[in-house]
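Lab channel / #folding
Pinned by the channel admin:
"Please post every new chain as: sequence first, then the structure tokens as a reply. Keep commentary short and put observations after the output so the thread stays searchable."

First post following the new format, from NK:
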Amino acid sequence: MSQLRRLLLTALPKVALSRLCGLLASTPLPRSMRRFVYGTFARRYGVELDEAAGELVSFRSLQQFFQRSLRPGARPVAAADLVWPCDGRIVTAGPVDGDRIEQVKGQTYSLADLVGDAALAQRLAGGSQATIYLAPGDYHRVHAPFAATITAVVPLPGTLFPVNPPAVRCIRDVFARNARHVFHCQLDGGVTAAVVMVGAYNVGGTRITASAGRVQAGDEIGQFGFGSTVVVILAPGGPRFGLAAPEQRTVMGQRATDA
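Reply from TO:
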């Protein structure tokens, strides 16, 4: 089954289909249909509607609903060196093995391929990482997991494989092959870090909302559409992610270290 899934996903015109889905999702819905459509989606994917800022009818399209903001206080940010950047579930988390990141148990991919910069990858090697999958029903805004200076935001071209768990198990190097945006970051004290927003099938239109400059933990840096993945990597000497098992739930702003 995994081999068949891999063949089918490889053959699909993923970018073209994702652009079409994005166009459809951005099409305004009649106001009379919005409560029914968004409510049906919420029941299907487990959206916590009471956390959303604004009424359902205020979202003009599915895309606006996917990228909804939260009511004030819904995600308090912990006073910690490292917090979770988004709602989602852990794919892998823990030490970076040299210059390789664990995609799934027994399968790794190149850090340099992910960030698209050999010098940055060398500085990050041997550090700590967390890979978080955002399902369709999750809150789809991404926030800074630490206080830092963003020195660059680099878009990297690629395809748009799905990044749901079945696809991650069968598509090698999926996060390094998909289109993505890499935030180059410098923490206080000179520690290097990176946040990678990985695009996915049906999520070709990643929106970046932060540019180079200073951010505090919890500041918004970008938005996804239907579902995708965030990878955070910190160089040795920086804060380290606590032990987190696959499928563990993350909540944006909560402490991400053991200490």
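NK: The mean pLDDT is 87.
TO: also worth noting, The first helix runs from residue 2 to 11.
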